[in-house]
Write a structure and sequence with these properties.
Helix content: 40-55%
Number of strands: 12
Strand order of the largest sheet: 1-2-3-5-8-9-10-12
Largest sheet: 8 strands, parallel, barrel
CATH superfamily: Luciferase-like domain
CATH class: Alpha Beta
Number of helices: 10
Radius of gyration: 19 Å
Mean pLDDT: 95
Shape: globular
Strand content: 15-25%
Length: 326
């Protein structure tokens, strides 16, 4: 899969936008991203807003219904989640859902999936939240079921956590949806990516990227899998300004809101957030993006914070970011 530049939309809090107008604003964002040259439009799969993004009661859209609507209003850009937590979905039903999105979009669906992490969300909505080890066991089995259903009309699978018997997936997807695994854990996430993923989205500090890629290469070698067959990218929070000073001010304003507002409760601010940021004017951002590619990555997926909601700023960001990619 050739994923060079993706956009992650992490907030549905468009200023002065009532619910009846919200979908049109999201479509505007997706279409602007498509026109600006982004390869992927991704939304989160959560039930309420995350602590590092805003207050819990800020708008949060159900992703697959939303992406189906966006599919009808876009033509080229791939669509998926970054990422779906395996604990929220029966895997056979998830495979059917992503297949439907692929058909509606004309072959543009991507399955982004991970082991889930937000225990408070699970508690509030009545989902079980097993141990890390068990969640990754769920993920391993779910990926086997989803892949089989994407590639064949009938799937039978008997695992410790999930079982299906002659589970039909008709109609089949237009194209087999690529599987993106998000995370950076060297003991569980990266080995699973080596086994199952078409795309690995690293969610880690930039200085850790070379080590993560080395682990992926080792795990691929152990499995006899082609390392280069996996698209490797990193999730970056980008603050782009007309000047470096303006970009720093934008970053500081966002961090100040997170530290002082409702977002500061719960999980709080990740300690490594600063090592996942790109801050500066067009030249500075371009240089840092190029530096990430030089580490051995194939691309980046960016969170532009509030700039995603502004068509002019989003279009400019797309121009800057695309120019920095090989």
């Amino acid at each position: 899969m050739n994923l060079r530049l993706g956009l992650q939309l992490t907030s549905f809090s468009y200023p002065s936008t009532p619910p009846a107008s919200l979908f049109e604003r999201i479509v505007e964002t997706a279409r602007t991203a498509e026109q600006a040259g982004f390869d992927l439009f991704a939304v989160m799969d959560h039930l309420m807003q995350l602590p590092v993004q805003g207050a819990p009661d800020e708008p949060m859209m159900e992703p697959y219904t939303l992406l189906g609507g966006v599919a009808a209003r876009t033509a080229r850009i791939q669509l998926g989640t970054l990422v779906t937590g395996v604990t929220y979905h029966n895997p056979a039903r998830l495979a059917k859902t992503v297949t439907a999105l692929d058909i509606v979009s004309g072959g543009r669906a991507l399955l982004g999936i991970g082991a889930a992490w937000y225990d408070e969300e699970h508690r509030r909505y009545g989902y079980s939240f097993p141990s890390v080890r068990e969640r990754f066991a769920w993920l391993d089995e779910a990926l086997q079921i989803c892949r089989s259903m994407f590639e064949g009309k009938s799937t039978s699978f008997s695992g410790e956590h999930f079982s299906v018997s002659d589970a039909l997936n008709e109609p089949q997807p237009v194209h087999v949806p690529p599987i993106l695994i998000g995370g950076a854990g060297e003991q569980r996430t990266i080995p699973l990516a080596a086994k199952h993923a078409d795309v690995l989205n690293l969610n880690c500090g930039f200085p850790d990227v070379p080590r993560k890629l080395e682990v992926l290469r080792e795990k691929c070698a152990e499995l006899g899998r082609d390392y280069d067959a996996i698209n490797k990218n990193v999730l970056a929070v980008v603050f782009l300004g007309r000047t470096n000073e303006e970009a720093v001010a934008k970053r500081d304003a966002v961090l100040a809101r997170q530290r002082s507002g409702p977002a500061a409760t719960g999980a709080g601010l990740p300690a490594a957030l600063g090592s996942r940021m790109i801050v500066g004017d067009a030249d500075t951002v371009g240089e840092q993006i190029s530096g990430l590619i030089d580490l051995g990555l194939d691309g980046v997926i960016v969170n532009l914070t509030g700039d995603s909601h502004n068509p002019e700023r989003l279009a400019h960001a797309g121009e800057v970011l695309r120019a920095a990619l090989p």
